[in-house]
Amino acid sequence: MVPGEWIRPLNMRRVGIIAALPGELKPLVHGWHPLPAARKGEAAWLSSVDGVECIAVRAGIGSEAAGRACDIAAQGGAPLDTLISVGWAGALSCGIHPGEAYAVNEVVDARTEEHFATGTALPQDSGVPLKLVSTDHIVGYTEKRRLAGLYSAVLVDMEAATVARFALSRHIPFFCLKAISDEIADVLPDFGCYTGSDGHVRVGALLGHVVIRPKYWPAMLRIGHNAKTGAQAIAGALRPFMGGA
After folding, report:
1. What is the dihedral of CA 147, 200, 58, 126, to 10 degrees?
2. pTM for the full model?
3. What percent of the chain has pLDDT over 90?
């Protein structure tokens, strides 16, 4: 995929960019103006280039946190013209690889069975649409295979469906751009045990669990690398879309 070609140009004034974790936005918001945060664990940044105002928000993992992030993005200023769900996702297919930004064509909410189309054009190097399924918990290998078969999805996350539903309620275009953090066969700890109700990971407790269990080390090391390159790929794909912001 060529960065910047995943979305057809639109005449926009204000773009909301929704993520879950700090690292997902770090390369994108470098140099942006930070906005005051209402509660711990939330953050927002603002940038304006060529008449396009962009507000990027992260509020934590999961549907509730994604809803708070959408509310923050919609507050103040002109109404949002577009909402974009960005960040890391798990791979449900061996054909989806780390280091690339994937434009999603359809998002499915596994809890409600709702389907949300995006405004994304098909990637030029793909002959089929890319579908993402959003769940209410972090999934492992067995469930990844089940979700892939049930929904014909290639990606899984916990936030995109909530962002899509919010955009639909405001009658504004919705887009989704994801990068791979964990591949389908990665052996990982249960992150859900170390994620609070506010959507934030207790990193110290998670690392304490992992450090004495060598079976998790290879995948955790890969996740660190995948996360960094994936966030850079997302930022690279978004910048031309935002007028170089």
Report:
1. -20
2. 0.85
3. 55
